[in-house]
Design goal:
Layout lengths: L1 H16 L25 H18 L2 E5 L11 H20 L8 E3 L12 E4 H7 L5 E8 L4 H10 L5 E2 L1 E6 L2 E7 L2 E2 L5 E7 H4 L12 E8 H11 L2 E2 L7 E4 L8
Parallel strand pairs: 1-11, 2-9, 6-12
Antiparallel strand pairs: 1-3, 2-5, 4-9, 4-10, 6-7, 7-8
């Protein structure tokens, strides 16, 4: 019993000795400043940021490529969408062959909603790519059995959405899939396929839940960095014109 009282006493002493006095801060009444276009510039602030602003504008306005035609994302086979899908395939394929996937990737798909702008004919600047891809999405590779690719083809059959693809051909007509090709060949149910896409889609974004049956492989490659690299490597852009999504007698318009 004495021990209990001693413990209680030591605890109480510790609590009271460690207690910090409460200080009430002095309160000052300040005037609200309205933020509007009429607010005068802070010249000191402008002077400080001027060199950084100049440097950033120089980088953003740097020419990295050229296109003789408008690059847009409208329609089932948009030239910008297919171009970026091809760049996604190429980047993932290069990475795969250097990282234990000798055959590289088999195909690629991206979402048209992730393409936030278009590129007009003429010089292509660094800032154009930032406007097209303002997000920090990463390239992922999803390993899937051929039998599970049925979910991918069913997705396009159901939605008839113009999400760009590369090394894929999908043809539908009257509620049925007529052709389902990967690299020009029919799918082998027992074969492993490697699909390049974005982390957003791989995690089920845009209702692409079929990726859930696969194994995700991270590349560490940012889509925007990949696109910048590919545009810089191609001074004259040749926009793809081939048909990859062929929705015959299309009724529901879900293009973006």
């Amino acid at each position: 019993m004495k021990i209990k009282f001693l413990l209680f006493g030591f605890t109480a002493l510790a609590l009271t000795s460690c207690k910090t006095p409460l200080n009430v801060a002095k309160i000052h009444t300040e005037k609200n400043i309205s933020i509007s276009k009429d607010l005068p510039d802070d010249q000191t602030f402008n002077t400080i940021i001027a060199p950084y602003k100049h440097e950033l504008e120089g980088k953003m306005n740097k020419k990295i490529s050229y296109t003789s035609v408008d690059l847009n994302k409208s329609g089932d086979n948009s030239n910008l969408g297919n171009l970026l899908a091809d760049y996604t395939f190429d980047g993932a394929d290069e990475w795969a062959k250097k990282n234990g996937i000798p055959g590289g990737v088999d195909c690629a798909l991206i979402n048209v909603g992730g393409i936030r702008s278009t590129i007009g004919a003429g010089d292509i600047l660094t800032k154009s790519i930032y406007e097209v891809m303002p997000f920090e999405n990463e390239v992922l590779i999803v390993k899937m059995k051929g039998s599970d690719l049925k979910g991918l083809f069913d997705y396009y059959l159901t939605t008839q959405k113009n999400n760009p693809v590369s090394h894929l051909y999908i043809e539908t007509d009257n509620g049925m899939t007529i052709k389902e090709l990967v690299n020009g060949k029919e799918v082998e149910p027992n074969k492993d396929y490697y699909i390049a896409t974005s982390d957003y889609l791989a995690m089920g974004g845009d209702n692409m839940t079929f990726f859930g049956k696969g194994k995700m492989i991270s590349t560490g490659i940012k889509l925007r960095d990949l696109f910048l690299e590919k545009f810089q490597a191609n001074p004259q852009i040749v926009a793809p014109t081939d048909i990859r999504l062929n929705f015959k007698n299309k009724k529901n318009k879900t293009n973006e």
